[in-house]
Design brief:
Helices cover 74% and strands 0% of the residues. It contains 7 helices and no strands. Helix 1 crosses helix 2 and helix 6 crosses helix 7. The longest helix has 39 residues.
C-alpha cells in the first residue's frame, strides 16, 4: 500500500528540485533523453512530479541530510521506472496512431463504386508523384501489407527512419485528402 507519509509543500518542492535535480538528469541520461530531444522537457517534468511523489511516500524525510543517500537510490529507481512506463505508453500510443494513420493513408478499402476506386487510384498516383524514391518504396511495401519491422529489414534501415518516412508521407497525403 502506497500511503502518503508527508505533504510536499511549495517550499519542500523547491528544496527537492534544487537538491535532487541531478537524480532526474541521471535518469534522463539512462533513457537517452538529452536537452535536444523533443520530449526532454516532458520527461523532466514527469521526473519532478515523481520526485515530489517519492518524497511524500518515502519512509524517511529526504530533506534531512542523514537520509539523502537512501532517498537518492529510492528516487532514482522510482523515476527510472516511471520513465520506462511512459516510454511504453508512448510507444503503444504511437503504434495505435500509426495504425489508424496508415488506414487513412490507404483509404482504399471497400470502394463503393468503380468511379470511387478510380478517384482513389488517381489520388494515390498524384501522391506518389510528389514522394521521394524512398517514400515511394515505403508506401509500396506498406500497401503490400508489410509492417514497420518487415519494411525496415527489407530496406536495410532502422525502424526510426521508417517512422520518419511515414510521417513525411502522411503530411504530404493530408494535403491531397483535404483538397
Amino acid at each position: 500500500m502506497n500511503m502518503k507519509k508527508r505533504i510536499c509543500t511549495d517550499e519542500a518542492a523547491t528544496l527537492l528540485s534544487e537538491l535532487y535535480a541531478g537524480v532526474i538528469h541521471h535518469c534522463l541520461k539512462k533513457i537517452n533523453r538529452y536537452p535536444d530531444h523533443n520530449d526532454y522537457d516532458d520527461f523532466y517534468q514527469l521526473g519532478l512530479i515523481t520526485l515530489f511523489d517519492t518524497y511524500e511516500t518515502c519512509l524517511k524525510d529526504a530533506l534531512a541530510t542523514e537520509n539523502s543517500f537512501l532517498f537518492v537510490s529510492y528516487a532514482k529507481q522510482k523515476i527510472h521506472w516511471t520513465f520506462l512506463d511512459q516510454i511504453r505508453k508512448d510507444r503503444k500510443k504511437e503504434s495505435r496512431e500509426a495504425y489508424l494513420s496508415e488506414e487513412e493513408l490507404e483509404e482504399i478499402p471497400n470502394a463503393a463504386s468503380f468511379e470511387d476506386q478510380l478517384e482513389q487510384e488517381d489520388l494515390l498516383q498524384r501522391l506518389c508523384a510528389c514522394l521521394t524514391t524512398e517514400e515511394n518504396a515505403y508506401l509500396r511495401d506498406a500497401l503490400e501489407g508489410l509492417n514497420i519491422t518487415e519494411i525496415a529489414k527489407k530496406q536495410k534501415i532502422s525502424r526510426k527512419t521508417i517512422y520518419k518516412r511515414r510521417r513525411h508521407i502522411q503530411t504530404k497525403a493530408s494535403t491531397f485528402l483535404k483538397g
